[in-house]
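User: I'm preparing a small set of examples for a lab meeting where we compare how different chains pack in three dimensions. I only have the primary sequence for this one, and I'd like the structure in token form so I can line it up with the others. Please keep the answer compact; I'll paste it straight into my notes.
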Amino acid sequence: MTRGFFPGALFRGLALRVLFFLSLALLPIGLIAIVQTQQLSQQTQTNAELSLLAVTEQASFAETEILQEAFGAAETLGPVVKLMHDDPERCSEFLGAYKEASAIYSLVGFIAADGIMTCSSADAPFDFSSDPEFLAMKENPRRQASSTSNGSLSRRPVTVVSLPVFKAREFVGAVFISIPFTAFDNLDKPELPRNPVALLTFNQRGEILTSDHALDINEAEVPPDIALSLFTGDQRIVFRAANKNGIERAYAIQPIVRDVAYAMSVWPTDTPFLQTDLTARAAAMLPIVMWAASLVVAFWALNRLAIRHIRKLGRQMRRFALNRTLPSKTLGYGVPTELVDMESAFIEMGESILRDEATLEDSLREKNILLKEVHHRVKNNLQLISSIMNMQIRQAKTADASFVLRRLQDRILSLATVHKNLYQNDNLERVEAKALLQEIVGQLLSVGLAPGSNVAISQDYAKVSLDADDAAPLTLLVSEALTNALKYIPQNPETPKKISIQLTSSAPELAELTIVNTVGGAPVEEGTGLGSKLILAFARQLNGQVDVNDDGELYTLRIVFPVPLQPKQILDY
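Assistant: Understood. Below is the structure token output for the 573-residue chain.
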């Protein structure tokens, strides 16, 4: 049986099975390593985000300081203006002096609950009753910050912080402080390890208060699909999103004035703060590297200690099975004891098989010699009987007696021919039908066909190998059929005569014998019909089917019989 390669054979290999179970054994350790790696990666990511938030805090230090000071100033001025707002002149003088002292603010004022500002550093009344920011303050009195590109009094971009003023828990107005955008630009910026793409602040409504670049530039860096008001809690947040130009950015947001103002820095995704360090990357690869290294070492050890020796032992066994050759060299030093014992057992088994086969071959050779001797002696005895019968034929007193003895002699010679072919053939179980039939037909024609009889003889024999038990009945059948053909051949020399003998193989295990002869003559004396009976008897021994056709000119005898390819099983009881 040939050994073909198919996918299932690969997964039945020893190496893959050991590697599979080793992988199962390493699975718990691998899971622990993966969990630890994930924790390390998360810690690394957290450290990167904290670094980004720290830089954001440093970058927004100036904005934070100004806004916190402004709200602190508003809280300080609140109680003062609550006492002085009934005296607008005195109140305005105080706020104007405070504005000049701060040197940062463009307007400091108090707007009463009716929306009229009479107390301010501008020293002039102004109506804010319809101003959206004041209306929002009046509706929801709390600290607020907003920005506008066109201040109501200064007519320039300003950031406005406002603080409500209460008297006996009743809203009486709000302190407003306007900070020009130039105040943020004139502050000294801290030195940073890396500057963000954009830095801006926004209020609780998500409106931009300040920016380090032009407002339109910073607005382009704001994620278009995410409202900044979503990040107005107390938590510091780092997230990734695409800006309005579709470029992915990293955003860091942290509160600078609680519940009022927030700073946001925008960073490219390849900024060093966001890059996982080499240790984290190596830790992420550690489980895979450990698993692969373990499998490589296990496979190397398994191959060196077992698999290559097993394959060598397998080759030795296959070589012994093909040509009965035992290995001249053993597996060698360093091979595991179990494999050495296995090889020793194989060599002992092989030597035992060789001894047994040698004994069987000797026994078979002796048997063949004895069988050939038996066939040879049987052939000699049959020829001796034929010689004795030949002497009797010469002494026969009647033609009938001579004819009967001659026919019996032909049958004995046919059997002798069978035994002759058997002992001359190396295969005592099979005999070639062609050589056997040619010799039988030659003997019969040389005796039964007179010179000048003008009979056309044709012989055609296919290569058919007969079992020894079938050779005798086939030979005797041909002998009887050819004798009958010679008996009934026309005697007129002018009449065309022929005898055709043909053996064909009509199927892999089926043969067909056809004997055709010309008829027209008749024997001098009517026969006994023994020849026809013998033909039928021999056909039954061959398990054949007989078909006879006589059209008055040609007599055709056709016998189809099985020819098994395997010799008949002989049971030795």
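A couple of notes for your slides: Residues 337-395 form the longest helix (59 residues). Confidence is low (pLDDT under 50) at residues 1-6.

User: Perfect, thanks.
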